[in-house]
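Slides due. Your pick:
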Amino acid sequence: MPELTDLSTIRALCEKYDFSLSKGYGQNFIINSGVCPKIVDGSGIDGRWGVIEIGPGIGVLTKELARRAAKVVAIEVDQRLPPVLAETLAEFDNVKIVLQDVLTVDLHQLIREEFPDMPVAVCANLPYYITSPIIMKLLEDRLPIQSVTVMVQKEAADRLAADPGTRESGAVSCAVQYYAQPKLLFSVQPGSFYPAPKVTSAVVRLDIRSAPPVQVTDEKGFFALVRAAFGQRRKTAANAIAAGLGLPKERVQAALEAAGLDVRIRPEKLTLEDFAAVQAALAQGN
C-alpha cells in the first residue's frame, strides 16, 4: 500500500471509492508523514497496549498505532469509510473497526471485550467540532484507561492543558485537571492536513489520575458550580455563580468569604481547591 500521507494516494482512494471529505464530520486527513509517529511516540504505547482510536479516517494514524500496539479498535461514524479502511489496513490483523458514534458506544463493554488484561490508551486525531464532548465522555465515564493522547485545535489544546487559576483556564480546564494530568506535547501547522484547516493544531496528552486532586462530596454539584462560574466569565465569580445557579448573590459572596476568597475574584482565578471550598460553604448554607 502506498504511503497514506501522499496526496496522490489520498485522491486515488477517494476516486476509487467515490469518497468526498465531509465538513460535517470534520474530516482533515494528515499528509505530513512525520506527524503520526510523533503522536504515537507521545502516547507512550508499545506492544503491550490496547488502543482506542476515534475517527480513523483513511487509516493514517491507525497504521502507525497498529505497527506498535498489541491491538487497535478504531471507532468511526462515517459509514462510507469501512471499504477504504479494509484496503488501507489490509496488512494488519490487529485492527478492528467499530462503525458507531463514539458518544453512544458503551466503552466499558468495549474495553472488557476487546482488551482483556491489557493496559489501554486512547489515541486520536479528533474532529474539532466535537472535541469537548468526546474528551468529557472519556473522562466522566471513568474508563479503565491510562491516558488520552489527542490532536485537536491548538486553542482547545491550550484550554485542556491550562492550570485552573490561570488566565487561560475555563470549565473544561477544571474538569480535565480533576480527572487527569494534562501535558501539551507539540503543535501541528495547517499545511500538515488535507484539506488545510484555517487553524493550527496541537497534540495533548492526558494521564488519568487514580484519584481526584480535591475531595468533593457532590461531584454533580461541583461541576455545576464550575460551569456556572465560567458561564459569564466577564462577570465576577460571585455574579456568575449566582446567575448560573439561581442563588442570591449575598449567599454566594458569603460562601466565597467562608472559603477565604475576595468576593470580587474573577472565575479564571479560582483553583480546584477554591471551587471545592466554595461548594462546601454553599452546602453548609453560608
